[in-house]
Amino acid sequence: MLSRVLKVAAQQGVKSFSTSQQNNVKVVVCGASGGIGQPLSLLLKNSPLVSELSLYDIVHTPGVAADLSHIDTANADIVIIPAGVPRKPGMTRDDLFNTNASIVRDLAAGCAKACPKALIGIISNPVNSTVPIACETLAKAGVLDPKRVFGVSTLDVVRANAFIGEAAGVDPQQVNLPVIGGHSGVTIMPLLSQCKPAVNFSQDKIKALTERIQEAGTEVVKAKAGAGSATLSMAYAGARFAISLIRAMRGESNIIECAYVRSDVTEAKYFATPLILGKNGIEKNLGYGTLNAFEQELLANALPELKKNIQKGEDFVNKN
């Protein structure tokens, strides 16, 4: 059933599923026919917390904003955007910029018209730049609320928990490791000193694990040998984040996820940290706590790259 509907979504724009529930939450997936969008939609379809799921996709990017404003995103509570082209071997996330920047800009413009109060989760890479693009676009439309826009960096946390759990001989589902900074290369900063349960590795092992977490996306791209990038793990992470947003919107307390958001925690305008989520998005930014010497070095290396990525996103909107 879902695969049939996704084909329809690709051809006609959108398809919605509805169920009758209390505390209705409407979720829209923009890019539902893609490698991430399909399994993400499947996972959300199977969640009893989602009362209405609208799936949207388009082949060509021109006119996306106008098209999106005509479909059933009105009054959407949550919009998740995995739309865009995937990485291929030899490509960096930054190589995706020219195509995906336009897609995110146009979808954000559509959201500004159709559902300006929605919580927006952006998966489209390069996240370090596409989140500033979305925020600048919403700001130009006069509807920006920085507490409602998120770069979904949850995959970095999922990977970190898996790799650390494996290395420590601990169930990864029991590992809670904050990952801060951004969502590419050196901007990804796993804070092993704050891992729960606590882990005890040599400095060489910490360095190796950190580098593996930072380059995990490239690891998948190489393993798929031209067949795509991380789709299943990203869909899992995207669904986890969307469901956390839903739980927070429904009034559950102490829902914490790391995400890349507009922030004053560092000198970078956007930065990923653990966040307490609430009914209106970010309830509290928990910051990054105390860093050890190795982590302080990671931060020093990350900030110049992060600021460059952010400026690139903002410049794109201002020049286009």
From TrEMBL:
Cite the binding residues for NAD(+).
G31, A32, S33, G34, G35, I36, G37, D57, N100, I123, S124, N125, M234
Q: Which UniProt keywords apply?
A: NAD, Oxidoreductase, Tricarboxylic acid cycle
Record-given protein name? Malate dehydrogenase, mitochondrial
Q: Which stretches are transmembrane?
A: none
Q: Which residues bind substrate?
A: R87, R93, N125, R159
A Pfam match is Ldh_1_N
Q: How does it assemble?
A: Homodimer.
Q: Which segments constitute the Lactate/malate dehydrogenase C-terminal domain? A: 154-317
Domain Lactate/malate dehydrogenase N-terminal per the UniProt entry, residue ranges? 25-151
Q: Which InterPro entries match?
A: L-lactate/malate_DH, Lactate/malate_DH_C, Lactate/malate_DH_N, Lactate_DH/Glyco_Ohase_4_C, Malate_DH_type1, NAD(P)-bd_dom_sf
Q: Which family does it belong to?
A: Belongs to the LDH/MDH superfamily. MDH type 1 family.
